[in-house]
Amino acid sequence: MSLAIGAAPSSSNMGFDDNKEAEAEKKATHPQESDEEGGERVGTGSRQMSESSFHATEDDDNDDETHNTIQLGSQCSLKEQLEKDKDDESLRKWKEQLLGSVDINNIGETLDPEVKFLSVSIVSPERPDIVLSIPEDGKPEGLWFTLKEGSKYCLRFSFQVGNNIVSGLRYTNTVYKTGVKVFSTKEMIGTFSPQLEPYKHEIPEEKAPSGFLARGSYTAKSKFLDDDNKCYLEINYTFDIRKDWADPN
Questions:
Q1: CB half-sphere exposure, 161, CA atoms < 13 A
Q2: How far is CA 112 from CA 74, 151, 167, 231, in A?
Q3: pTM above 0.85?
Q4: Distance of alpha carbon 224 from alpha carbon 202, whole angstroms
Q5: What is the CA radius of gyration of the chain?
Q6: How far apart are CA 182 and CA 180, in angstroms?
Q7: Residues pairing with 170 in the sheet
Q8: Of 12, 23, 97, 242, which sits with the fewest C-beta atoms within 10 Å of its C-beta?
Q9: Mind giving me the DSSP string for 6-21?
Q10: 145: pLDDT strictly greater than 90
């Protein structure tokens, strides 16, 4: 972490008028405020993100369960949305462009979107993709997968959306080792309209930790939530980090 500290402007010249003295006093007592002439902020700190690694972390003060949401008013079904302003040609075309290949005949009157996750794939240039099926209860039995230490990989999700638009779908993941939280991440997936064809989303590439202390067994909890903080899937699983990938079944 780097910290930039700026000194308050001062002058040894005499003859300042009252306004300039007041302005100088204000800057001296509020060094965090921006300087109007230079446009530069002084007295503020900047933080650079560290490389992703598994290490002990503090609890996140902004837990998903207490995530603040904006109330946008009453919700209506997608069919009702399509019926609104149907005589406005420009608005109708905009909705068609937004919704893409939605089959209007298959849209119900349900207000809540339906999001079904089909699989999770571990994608690495070092080996064929590992496709993991997701149990309906979100609790894979036994060891779910093994990562090779120091390997580069990313996760690819496959899911379907039905009934209504899901807004602000996001992924959170928290990893524990021997009961201690060692890693957490959040990833925005996006907003999706209903369609029969599954969506696919890949999160940015990560690098597995390496070394004697990194190897071993981990437990993790992954969640998929929308901007109303509704959870569509929670997966509780275990995985290993080893010297090499596990043999394919």
A1: 27
A2: 12, 39, 11, 12
A3: no
A4: 14
A5: 26
A6: 6
A7: 188, 225
A8: 12
A9: -PPP----S---HHHH
A10: yes
Beta strands 231-242 and 143-148 are: parallel
Strand (E) or helix (H) holding 89: helix 89-99
Classify 222 as helix, strand or coil.
strand
Question: What is the spatial distance between Cα 112 and Cα 116, in angstroms, rounded to a whole number?
Answer: 13
For residue 20, CA distances in Å to 11, 15, 32, 39, 50 come to: 11, 10, 19, 18, 43
Q: What is the pLDDT of residues 101-135, one digit of tens each?
A: 565 555 556 678 899 999 999 999 999 999 998 98
Q: Beta-strand (E) ranges in the chain?
A: 2-3, 45-46, 114-124, 127-133, 143-148, 152-162, 166-177, 180-192, 195-202, 206-207, 216-225, 231-242
Beta carbons of 104 and 79 less than 8 angstroms apart: yes
**Which residue is associated with the tokens 């496709």?**
131
Mean pLDDT of 78-88: 63
Question: What average pLDDT does the segment 149-177 reach?
Answer: 94
CA–CA dist 205, 188 (Å, integer): 14
Both tokens of 168, joined, read 């602000």
Encode 114-123: b = buried (16+ Cβ within 10 Å), e = exposed: ebebeebbbb
Other CB atoms within a 10 A radius of the CB of residue 147 amount to: 22
Q: Mean pLDDT, to the nearest integer, of 170-188?
A: 95
Residue 218 confidence (pLDDT) above 70: yes
CA angle 182, 184, 189 (to 5 degrees): 160
